[in-house]
Amino acid sequence: MTSLQGKKILLGISGGIAAYKMNYLVRDFIKLGAEVQVILSPSAENFISKLTLSTLSKKPVYSDFYGENGVWNNHVELALWADLILIAPCTANTLFKMVNGTCDNLLLAIYMSAKSPVFIAPAMDLDMYKHPSTQQNLEKAEDFGHFIIPAESGELASGLFGEGRLAENETILETINSFFDVKETLSGKIVLITAGPTYEAIDPVRFIGNHSSGKMGFSLAEEAAKRGAKVILISGPTSLNVENRNIELFRVTSAKEMFSKVFEFYENADIAIASAAVADYAPKEISSEKIKKSENSLTLELVKNPDILKTMGEKKTHQFLVGFALETHNEEENAKQKLFKKNLDMIVLNSLQDEGAGFKKDTNKIKILTKNETLKFSLKSKIAVAKDILDFIETQILK
Ligand code: PMT
């Protein structure tokens, strides 16, 4: 296990008897080269000592917004420091608060400010674990894109036997290690990705656009880069930035600009993924001055934009070509049509009928369609969806 080397783990401990096991978990994380910042919920302090944890983690342990001598424990800084947040043990109470937006302690404020992946290892008595509200809250957490490390069966602190025991430390370590354990399976490949919306100018002030945030495309770029690919990311207007140095980001505005940029790189690409929400039409004329409000109605003549993906399909030589389909009805049928019409190797379908899927959110729910098969996936974080998409592409290109 070496993938934990240099990783920053924020371990949130809530108030359950299994908290005592975290001494060993912190020691193991440190031994494997991770940095660990421990945060306790106020009631966790009854179960475990700050002194032991800070000695093992070699860092101060916080449980309150305010430290000694009036120092503020900045929850935003702590949240952004972490590569991964692990809540273990996660009690029914902390779980409920996490999925319902309660923010009444430092641990919850950090959780709500976090951008990194969140892993939850629940632990509680068997009836609490089985209770429909706990199960629903775990489902909600999964819908938010968090990863659950399920409780195990065994003897519980109450003396009862059943499900609710914190997963063994070894299981927790393995789960987190394998999350970071990314093999350079795309080393030597060039992956071209389009992302975000396009803006089609009407005048110097206004444009026609859409709700794409770029999150899906940027997640794909980060994941492909992690796997060793050289990534060319061509994005419409978004506020996102890239982290991995293997990603070369080109920012464009309109569909025509995206089209030109794509074909500077397409010929040499091994894999091309079109996740951008490209405007199908643009105003025929762009007014050089702001259009003044005068009449009761205004008619704009729109003309068709070039179809970037269709053109990639026409020019395809060796590239593995992946399209997206954003649908609202007859989803599979429409996606299949796009697959054939645009000469794609596969298409990723997301439907606006599915809660949590599509634009802006951090989650998506997809189906992958090829000429011969359809695979369904559950609602996941866009980072996890990007992994699923690239895992599937790898199975296809290595056939
Ligand atoms: O950016 P996010 O907020 O994370 O949202 C992600 C997403 C919902 C935008 C993404 O998952 C998605 O579905 N992208 C494709 C949206 C879309 O425009 O779908 P479409 O069915 O209209 O287009 C089909 C395919 O043709 C797409 O791959 C699109 O990129 C491509 N296309 C469309 C028109 C055009 N002129 N040129 C194109 O390349």
Provide structural commentary.
There is one protein chain. Strand 1, helix 1 and strand 2 (35-40) form a beta-alpha-beta unit. The chain has two domains: 8-180, Flavin prenyltransferase-like (Rossmann fold), CATH 3.40.50; 190-284 and 298-397, CoaB-like (Rossmann fold). The mean pLDDT is 94. The longest helix has 16 residues, at 382-397. It has 399 residues and is of the alpha/beta class. The strands form six sheets. Strands 12-11-8-13-16-17-19-20 form an eight-stranded mixed β-sheet, with helices on both faces. The protein has a five-stranded parallel β-sheet with strand order 2-1-3-4-5, sandwiched between helices. The protein has 13 helices and 21 strands. Helix 3 packs across helix 5. Helices cover 32% and strands 23% of the residues. The protein has helices spanning 22-31, 50-57, 75-81, 92-100, 106-113, 126-130, 132-143, 169-180, 215-226, 255-265, 308-314, 331-341, 382-397; strands spanning 8-13, 35-40, 84-90, 118-122, 147-148, 152-155, 161-165, 190-195, 200-201, 207-208, 230-235, 247-251, 271-274, 281-283, 302-304, 320-327, 346-351, 363-364, 366-369, 374-376, 380-381. It binds ligand PMT. Ligand PMT binds next to helix 9, helix 11 and strand 16.
Briefly characterize the structure.
Helices cover 32% and strands 23% of the residues.
Keywords:
399 residues, alpha/beta, Rossmann fold, 2 domains, eight-stranded mixed beta sheet, five-stranded parallel beta sheet, 32% helix, 23% strand
